[in-house]
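Need the bound structure for flavin-adenine dinucleotide, inputs here:
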Amino acid sequence: MPAEINMPQLSDTMTEGTVVKWHKKEGDQIKIGDELADVETDKATMPMEAFDSGTLAVILIKEGEKVKVGEAIGVIATGNEKPQEIKNQYSTGARPQAAKPATVVAPAAPAPQPESSSYSKPSSAPAAPPPKAANYQFDIIVIGGGPAGYAAAIRAGQLKKRVLCIEKENLGGTCLNWGCIPTKALLDDGAFIRKLRLEAAEHGVSYKDLSIDFARLIRRSREIADRLSNGIAHLFRKYGVTRESGRGQLLGPHKVKVGDKQFTAQHVILATGAVATPLPGVAFDGKKIIASRQAMSLAVQPKKIAIIGAGAIGCEFADFYDAVGTEVVLVEMLDHLLPIEDEEVSLALERVFAKRNIDVRTRTRTDRVETTPGGVKLTLSGAKAGTIEADVVLVAIGVSANTAGLAAPEAKLQLVKGRIEVDPQYRTNLEDVWGVGDCVSVRWPSQQNMAGFRHPDLAHVAHHEAVNCVERICGVSDHTIDYRSIPACTYTHPQVASMGYTEKKAREMNFKIKVGKFPFSASGRALALGEPDGFVKLIFSAQYGELLGVHMIGANVTELLSELVIAKKLEATEAEIIEAIHPHPTFSEAVMEAAGVADGRAIHL
Ligand SMILES: Cc1cc2nc3c(=O)[nH]c(=O)nc-3n(C[C@H](O)[C@H](O)[C@H](O)COP(=O)(O)OP(=O)(O)OC[C@H]3O[C@@H](n4cnc5c(N)ncnc54)[C@H](O)[C@@H]3O)c2cc1C
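Answer from helper R.:
Posting the output first, comments after.
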C-alpha cells in the first residue's frame, strides 16, 4: 500500500514546516530509520526519519516549499505497487484510496530555544470563528461542571464571555467529588496508618492499641471534596459564570435544553465526563458489586475486598484497603499491575504488593461474579484460577463516556464507541459544538504518528483541553496538546509517575535510546525518610539527548514528575538535566543522577 510522508508536528507550536533538503530522490530505496529530509520549523531544523520501507515513489513538496502540519510531502511505495503509477496518480492531484497517511515521524528535536511567551497567538488563525448572530443568550454554554467543564467556564468568564455552565450534580465533577481528591485523602490516611503499624518501633514510637475509625476516614475525605466543590462555586461567582443545575441536552448547534428550559449560545462545549464501566453481564448493585464511588464511601469497612482491574484506580484502592487492614485480592487479566506502565515499574509494584500479602492475581480472568448471602463469589480462570469469596467486589476495569441522552437524536452528534468524536482542536462534527475531557475520543489526522498513545482519562488532560478549547474559540491561543507526553500518576505507596515512551515502546519505534536508572536505595533523602523502594528511570534519544520517557516508582515521585514535564516542554537534553543544580538532600537528586547514569557520569552509583 502506498504510504504518504506527512509533515509532522515537531513541537506544540508548530503549524507548518519547510522542506529544507531532501536526502533521498524519487526511485531511491528507503529503509525504516533512514533520514528522508531536513525540515525547518519555527524553532529549529530537524531531520525526518522514515517509518516505512519501500521505494520513494514521488516527492510532492520541493526543497524550499512550506506546507501545513499533516500535509503529504511525498509517498513511499511499500508493497508491490509500481512507483511510476503512484507518481502518475498524484500528479493528477488524486490521492489513491488506499494510501495510508503519515509514514514518518521526525525524531527528537535537538534542544531549541524555549517559547518566549506563555501564549502562542493563533498563527494560521484557525481560532476565532467569525461572529454570527448576536442574539444568543450566551457566548458559551458548557455542559458538565468537572475539571473540563468548570475550567472551560472559568476561563471563558475570565475572557469576559457570557457563559452558562450546566451541571446535574456537584461542581467539580468526578475529580473533586468522586475521584482524584477524595481517593488521595484516603490513601494518605492509609499510608499514615501503615507507617504506624509497621514502622513505629523503628522510629522509636510505641503505643498500646491502634484502632481505626473507618467512618471518620471516609468523612474526612468527603469534607475535603465538599470544600473544593464549594470553592468552584466561589470561582464561578468571581468570574461571572452563570450556573444551571440539571441535566443538559444538546438540541443542535447553539441550542441546549435543561428540563423545560431552553438556552442558546454561539458555542456549546460538551464536558460530561465518564462513569465506571461494569463487567460485561454483571450490573453494579451499589452494595456488594460496587464501583469506585461506593468504594470510597462504604458505611462499614469490609473484612475482605476483591478488586477486578489493576489500573491506577484498582491499585489505589488495593493500597488503601490493605493499609486499613482489609484483606485484598487484586485480579488483573493482563500480565502486570498498571499494565500501561513501563514493565520494570509494574514489576517493582508487584513485589511491594506481594510483600504486603495483597493477593495479586495477574493473567487471571474473572469469568463470573455472583452475590451470596455473605457477600460475593468470583470464579476466575487463567494463571491463578479458582474461586474467591469476599464481602464486596470493586469493579475497576475502566470508564465509559457520559453521553447517553446527551444529544437529541436529531442533533446527529457523532459518537465513537459511546465517546464524542473530536479532532485535535476539540471540534465535533457539529458546527460550533466542541467536546473536551473524559467524554471524548480524539481523531488524530495520523494514528501512526501517535505511536499507540491514546486520549487518557485524566483530570489534568481534561483541564488543559478545556482551557485550550476556550482560548481557541476566543481567538486567544491555538495551543494544542502533545498526547505522547502526558504525565500520569498513581498514588499507591510507593507512588508511580510516568510520561512518554516506555522502554519497550521506544525500542519498538526504533528510537536509538540511552536509559538511565537510579535507585532510591542510593538516595540519602529517601533513606532518611525510610523510603528506599523504587527508582527513577529516564529514557533519552541517543542521537539528540531528548527526553523520550520518564518512569518512576517511589515515595513522592508524583511531585518529581513536574520537573520533567517542564524539561520535556523546553526540550531539555540529558546534559541540561545533569547540569541543572538539584538541591541536596532531595528526592529530585535521583532525577539528576538518572540522567547522569544515561550519560555515564552519575556520581552516586
Ligand atoms: C476513583 C478515581 C480516581 C481518580 N484519580 C485521578 C487522579 O489521581 N488523577 C487524575 O488526573 N485523574 C484521576 N481520575 C480521573 C479524573 O477524575 C477524570 O479524568 C476527570 O474528572 C475528568 O474530568 P471531566 O470534566 O472530563 O469529567 P467529570 O469529572 O466526570 O465531570 C463531568 C461532569 O459532567 C456532569 N454531567 C454529565 N452529564 C451531564 C449532563 N447531561 N448535564 C449536566 N451535567 C452532566 C457530571 O455530573 C460531572 O460532574 C480519577 C477517577 C476516578 C474515578
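Comments: The radius of gyration is 26 Å. The CA atoms of residues 87 and 428 lie 34 Å apart.
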